[in-house]
Amino acid sequence: MENATLRLCGAGDLEALASLSRETFTHAFAALNNPLDFQQHLEEAFNPERLRAELGNPDTRFYFLYSASQLAGYMKVNVGQAQTELREPEGMEVERLYVIAEFQGRGLGAWMLQQAGDLARKEGKRYLWLGVWEENLAAIRFYKRHGFAIFDKHPYYVGTDRQMDWMMRLDL
């Protein structure tokens, strides 16, 4: 992807990461969830203390996506015990993959997913996996187009609302 780059986030990116996380998650899911549950989730998942701890975990990495020099999205990957499920040494979880609304439709999400696969291969991983909300049909189609297949499901909570994620895997 021309002019697209990823940059590994560090402790100095905490404020920007928190803001970007809230912005992209809100754009994607706020209208589809109970406002109280949604607000609770934003406060739990994207609070500075939690993000600081995640940034400091060597098994979790956040990457900012840039299109030219503009911040366009971000990705979070987990290995080892940082994975939300499985925790197998040969797998890498793509926990978050978000592109800011104004940059969507330019192939940046597909490019970022390809970069995740390249990163996993370089680290000797055999597969990528992720969870995607069963009602997010566009995302499910996107991941299937890129070779992912559903292999299981697990609950995901937005506040007190128990939702179901499809777990999808791509063998590398």
The quaternary structure here is: single chain
What is the C-level CATH assignment? Alpha Beta
- The helix/strand class is alpha+beta
Number of helices: 5
Fourth-level CATH superfamily: Gcn5-related N-acetyltransferase (GNAT)
Gap between N and C termini, in Å?
20 Å
How many separate structural domains?
1
Order of helices and strands: EHHHEEEHEHEE
Biggest sheet, open or closed, and with what strands and sense?
A: 7 strands, mixed
* Strand content bin: 25-35%
Q: Give Rg in angstroms.
A: 15 Å
Give the beta-strand count: 7
Topology-level CATH name:
Aminopeptidase
Mean pLDDT: 97
Low-confidence stretches: none
Estimated helix fraction:
25-40%
Shape: globular
Strand order of the largest sheet: 1-2-3-4-5-7-6
CATH architecture field: 3-Layer(aba) Sandwich
Walkthrough of the structure:
By secondary structure, the protein is an alpha+beta fold. 35% of the residues lie in helices and 34% in strands. The protein has a 7-stranded mixed β-sheet, sandwiched between helices. A hairpin with a 2-residue loop joins strand 2 and strand 3 (70-78). Helix 1 (14-29) crosses helix 3 (48-56). The radius of gyration is 15 Å and the shape is globular.
